Amino acid sequence: MDKLINDFSFGLFFWQVIILVVLLLLLAKFAWKPIMSSITEREEGIRNAIASAEAARKEMQNLQADNERILQEARLERDALLKDAREMKDKIVADAKHEAQLQGDRMIEQAKTAIEGEKNAAMAELKNQVSSLSLEIAEKLLKNELSNKEAQVKLVDQMLGDVTLN
């Protein structure tokens, strides 16, 4: 260390300081501004990238929230459509049952009416046959009873007696 201090040369020191100052001036004039501008641009680019990344993150959060909202709305709409479809199905089934019940009741009523009509027709036919048979029997009896004169007079007297009593 003593050797360095003993070998100190003021001229050499002076020229080294001048070279250093000239070098610093040249650097300041030609290199410092481009270096600083590139560092500033780089800082600005990094800030922009961070801001873009933050904006993209927020946009992604918004998109995810929108997707969740849209999915929730779609689920609600699907549930509403399924509910409407079930209600419509139940209504159609109930209407079909009601219509079938009405048609069944109509068919039963028509069958009852047809049976009643046929019953009445059969009764009328039976009455006609009974009255025909009764007339034939009465005719045969009257022929037998009215075959002689004495039986005719007796029958007329009996009928007159019945008429006055009623």
Automatic annotation (TrEMBL):
Keywords: ATP synthesis, Cell membrane, CF(0), Coiled coil, Hydrogen ion transport, Ion transport, Membrane, Transmembrane, Transmembrane helix, Transport
MF term (GO), any: proton-transporting ATP synthase activity, rotational mechanism
Membrane topology listed for this record: Single-pass membrane protein
Gene Ontology cellular component list: endomembrane system; plasma membrane; proton-transporting ATP synthase complex
Entry's localization field: Cell membrane; Endomembrane system
TM segment ranges: 12-32
InterPro entries: ATP_synth_B-like_membr_sf (IPR028987), ATP_synth_b/b'su_bac/chlpt (IPR002146), ATP_synth_F0_bsu_bac (IPR005864), ATP_synthase_B_chain (IPR050059)
Entry superkingdom: Bacteria
Coiled coil location: 46-91
Quaternary state and interactors: F-type ATPases have 2 components, F(1) - the catalytic core - and F(0) - the membrane proton channel. F(1) has five subunits: alpha(3), beta(3), gamma(1), delta(1), epsilon(1). F(0) has four main subunits: a(1), b(2) and c(10-14). The alpha and beta chains form an alternating ring which encloses part of the gamma chain. F(1) is attached to F(0) by a central stalk formed by the gamma and epsilon chains, while a peripheral stalk is formed by the delta and b chains. F-type ATPases have 2 components, F(1) - the catalytic core - and F(0) - the membrane proton channel. F(1) has five subunits: alpha(3), beta(3), gamma(1), delta(1), epsilon(1). F(0) has three main subunits: a(1), b(2) and c(10-14). The alpha and beta chains form an alternating ring which encloses part of the gamma chain. F(1) is attached to F(0) by a central stalk formed by the gamma and epsilon chains, while a peripheral stalk is formed by the delta and b chains.
Entry's family note: Belongs to the ATPase B chain family.
Purpose: F(1)F(0) ATP synthase produces ATP from ADP in the presence of a proton or sodium gradient. F-type ATPases consist of two structural domains, F(1) containing the extramembraneous catalytic core and F(0) containing the membrane proton channel, linked together by a central stalk and a peripheral stalk. During catalysis, ATP synthesis in the catalytic domain of F(1) is coupled via a rotary mechanism of the central stalk subunits to proton translocation. Component of the F(0) channel, it forms part of the peripheral stalk, linking F(1) to F(0). The b'-subunit is a diverged and duplicated form of b found in plants and photosynthetic bacteria.
Protein name, UniProt field: ATP synthase subunit b
Source species: Flavobacterium kingsejongi
Lineage: Bacteria, Pseudomonadati, Bacteroidota, Flavobacteriia, Flavobacteriales
Gene coding for it: atpF
